[in-house]
Design a protein that fits this description.
Keywords: ATP-binding, Membrane, Nucleotide-binding, Transmembrane, Transmembrane helix. This protein is of the alpha/beta class. 63% of the residues lie in helices and 10% in strands. It has three domains: 321 residues, ABC transporter type 1, transmembrane domain (ABC transporter transmembrane region fold, Up-down Bundle); 189 residues, Rossmann fold; 54 residues, no CATH class.
């Protein structure tokens, strides 16, 4: 628990010390108000029942009301200041979390245990939607309540030491019971995280326009609703058990409150009847007991909240300290070459996490930096894995990948990313404007974007749009957004790759959804635009490989053939077999 508080305290102190100072001052000033409200009636009633001095009564009223006004004013000021500064810290932290997520190794994003850990970490940092540093706020809240206790303790001690001791015992019993129930509640939270993540996924499917056509046309709504209902039923069991725990918790809390107030009232009635205390004292003690009970319950809630969410802190530490094997290598031993002479895979093998079979097995190949290279093979042959390793989304399990004879690990990852561009089969166009989708930078050269689009045959399409390249893509945020066709979308993705002006450009089946003629047109256009650079193509349609200088044929993770189109046909191997199978459909 203390490690989690230390983490938040140190982070907030590093970003903006004013937040913590305002938070503490808010709790102190906020604690003064109930103390004044508790004491105020005693002095008024005692004076009224005694000397009944009007001027003194007036002074007391002015003094206490002014004091209450000032404490509330200060409390509001420090609360608003703390809220403003908390927003600054939240913005900083969200940025750092976003950077961390972007830089985490790609394999983590395909690991369900990482995604569960990320969700647990977010539950600690955002406390189930209750706001950043909720845990820290609740901890500092205890400071304010302790300030109240120092005052109330002396009041209750003056009333009766035995009753105060009974109160303390009841508080301890309540505290132990609450901690036990909160622990069980938190355990249920951890268990239901995967279910909530699945629910979020299903809800996103139902609201995502990309899936809407398929769900509606194929009449799949009943299937998806049944999936949704199944997850909701599982979650309902968790919610019911959590509700039962909350009922037990509240029942114990109210029972202890009843005992405290009942004991106090019985004693004070006895004390007043025996003239042991004044009516003013009676009022003071009544208010003190009520304030003590409310403050004690608030402290217990704060402690239990901190304990509950601190259970997730282990996930925060693991998430923030997760080693980044690829991004960690930022100190480059050599600069990336201005020109690529050769790329070589030397005995490269790779196995996906949780799999026993290798996706690539001892792959050896070499090609020059200005070739057009095609990678072909049946599904599951290892084509996309080959590209992911070249793009450094993964690291080889064994072997090495060399550029100009230098292991790619020797290059700065940031610099390496700038030299390679890829268009994947599942490429994404974002709900930004067209220029931002192509440039993916804050500063964009419009002339270059227009040139690339013109070369790809998109000039007339863009010219027909009211805002040109600044027209929004999709209608998520703009009802007049542009919805590109399949071919137009692929051309925008290719324009993005061209704009980057990288030395290596990869096309990983981005035209799979197009007809052969449209695919051939895009490949021919792309081939002319990337002359002098290394272009790597992946395609199931082997007719598009004829213009390539080198063709790599993969089967079950192994490289079994390598050569030109004519050379591979002469081998009468797998490539020739696949080519013949496809060619017969076009005769």
């Amino acid at each position: 628990m203390f490690r989690s508080l230390k983490f938040l305290w140190c982070y907030a102190w590093r970003v903006d010390k004013g937040y913590l100072i305002s938070l503490v001052l808010y709790q102190i000033s906020n604690s003064l108000t109930p103390i004044l409200i508790m004491i105020f009636p005693k002095f008024i009633i005692d004076e009224f029942m005694g000397e009944n001095d009007f001027h003194l009564l007036l002074q007391l009223v002015v003094f206490f009301t002014t004091g209450i006004f000032l404490t509330k004013l200060l409390s509001s000021y420090f609360e608003n200041t703390a809220f403003y500064k908390r927003c600054i810290i939240l913005e900083r932290f969200q940025t750092e979390l976003g950077e961390r997520l972007i830089k985490t190794d790609f394999e983590n994003l395909e690991d369900s245990s990482f995604l569960d850990m990320k969700q647990n970490a977010e539950k600690f940092l955002y406390a189930n939607g209750q706001g950043f540093s909720f845990v820290l706020d609740r901890a500092v809240n205890i400071i304010g309540k302790l300030f109240i206790f120092t005052t109330i303790f002396s009041v209750l001690l003056a009333m009766n030491a035995m009753i105060l001791a009974i109160f303390v015992i009841l508080v301890l019993i309540n505290s132990i019971a609450q901690m036990h129930l909160k622990k069980r509640y938190a355990d249920l939270e951890m268990q239901k995280n995967p279910k909530e993540r699945r629910l979020s996924y299903l809800n996103s499917l139902l609201s995502d326009v990309a899936y809407a056509k398929e769900i509606r046309i194929n009449g799949q709504h009943e299937f998806f609703i049944s999936k949704l209902q199944g997850v909701l039923r599982e979650l309902w069991l968790f919610y019911r058990r959590q509700m039962q725990l909350l009922n037990y918790s509240q029942g114990i809390l109210h029972f202890v409150d009843l005992l405290q107030r009942g004991i106090a009232y019985l004693y004070m009635i006895y004390a007043v009847s025996r003239h042991l205390i004044t009516i003013g004292d009676f009022t003071l003690y009544i208010n003190a007991v009520a304030t003590f009970t409310d403050a004690m319950n608030d402290v217990l809630d704060s402690i239990n909240d901190v304990r509950q969410y601190s259970i997730y802190f282990e996930s925060v530490e693991r998430y923030l300290n997760l080693p980044m094997k690829i991004h960690a290598e930022t100190a480059a031993s050599v600069s990336f070459p201005e020109e690529i002479e050769s790329i070589e895979f030397r005995n490269v093998s790779f196995t996906y996490k949780g799999k026993s079979k290798q996706a690539l097995h001892k792959v050896n190949c070499r090609f020059s930096g200005k070739e057009k290279v095609a990678i072909v093979g049946e599904n599951g042959a290892g084509k996309s894995t080959f590209i992911k390793l070249l793009c450094r989304l993964y690291e080889p399990e064994s072997g090495e990948i060399l550029i100009n004879g230098i292991n790619i690990k020797e290059f700065s990852y940031q610099e390496y990313k700038e030299k390679i561009s890829a268009i994947f089969q599942d490429y994404q166009l974002f709900s930004f404007n067209i220029a931002e989708n192509i440039g993916l930078q804050n500063e964009i050269e419009e002339a270059r974007i227009l040139k690339d689009l013109q070369q790809l045959g998109m000039k007339e399409v863009i010219a027909a749009l009211d805002q040109g390249v600044y027209t929004a893509l999709h209608k998520d945020f703009d009802p007049h957004g542009f919805e590109p066709s399949g071919g137009q979308g692929q051309k925008l993705a290719i324009a993005r790759a061209l704009y980057k002006d990288a030395l290596i450009i990869v096309l990983d089946e981005p035209t799979a959804a197009l007809d052969p003629r449209a695919e051939n047109e895009i490949y021919n256009t792309f081939s002319n635009l990337v002359k002098g650079k290394l272009a790597i193509y992946i395609s199931h349609r082997l007719s598009s490989t004829r213009f390539c200088d080198t063709i790599l044929v993969l089967k079950e993770g192994s490289l079994i053939e390598c050569g030109t189109h004519e050379e591979l046909l002469d081998l009468h191997g797998l490539y020739a077999e696949l080519y013949a199978m496809q060619a017969k459909y076009y005769r």
